[in-house]
Amino acid sequence: MVIKTPEWVKNAIFYQIYPDTFARKVPDRQKWLLDVPLEDWEAPPTSQGYKGGNLWGVIDKLDYLQDLGVDALYLTPIFRSACNHRYHTQDYYAIDPLLGDREAFDHLLKTAHDKGFKVVLDGVFNHASRGFFFLTISWKMDRIPPWLDWFKIEGWPLSAYDGSRPANYVSWIDYRALPRLTTITRQ
């Protein structure tokens, strides 16, 4: 397999954005976002707290990024997750509601592209969250689901939360919160 790097990447100036701490802007129709318990914006971030940065905030800072000479944005995961860094993906098809919604994402892409930016999303496809639907439904079913081979199950019952019992599935760096997905590599 030959991997060909796109030409635009070779000279691109990337800016990596961790949306939760980058910038926050809340549209009037989404004021509920300010009702979520957030850490003080000026306080040092913690591993469990949320600052409330979002996609609207990224859109608001595009002129600033353009003035820096940036022409490619690399966003850490934006998919629905139970963590501020969003590497614990629960749904690969949904934008995390704290970051915005599909409208915010579409507006970000259109505005960024209109300004000449390329946008790259960080997708984590070697592990998901223990809250990933296809894993949680698996331990609740009374039969083997067809997608169970997405995970390497080592025994039953599965235990995603009770640390006194074995998880019984392979996880990323043996961290039960991140069940590893079975991936196929092509030679």
Automatic annotation (TrEMBL):
<keyword id="KW-0326">Glycosidase</keyword>
<dbReference type="InterPro" id="IPR006047">
    <property type="entry name" value="GH13_cat_dom"/>
</dbReference>
<keyword id="KW-0378">Hydrolase</keyword>
<dbReference type="GO" id="GO:0004558">
    <property type="term" value="F:alpha-1,4-glucosidase activity"/>
</dbReference>
<dbReference type="Pfam" id="PF00128">
    <property type="entry name" value="Alpha-amylase"/>
</dbReference>
<feature type="domain" description="Glycosyl hydrolase family 13 catalytic">
    <location>
        <begin position="16"/>
        <end position="186"/>
    </location>
</feature>
<protein>
    <submittedName>
        <fullName>Maltodextrin glucosidase</fullName>
        <ecNumber>3.2.1.20</ecNumber>
    </submittedName>
</protein>
<dbReference type="InterPro" id="IPR017853">
    <property type="entry name" value="GH"/>
</dbReference>
<dbReference type="GO" id="GO:0005975">
    <property type="term" value="P:carbohydrate metabolic process"/>
</dbReference>
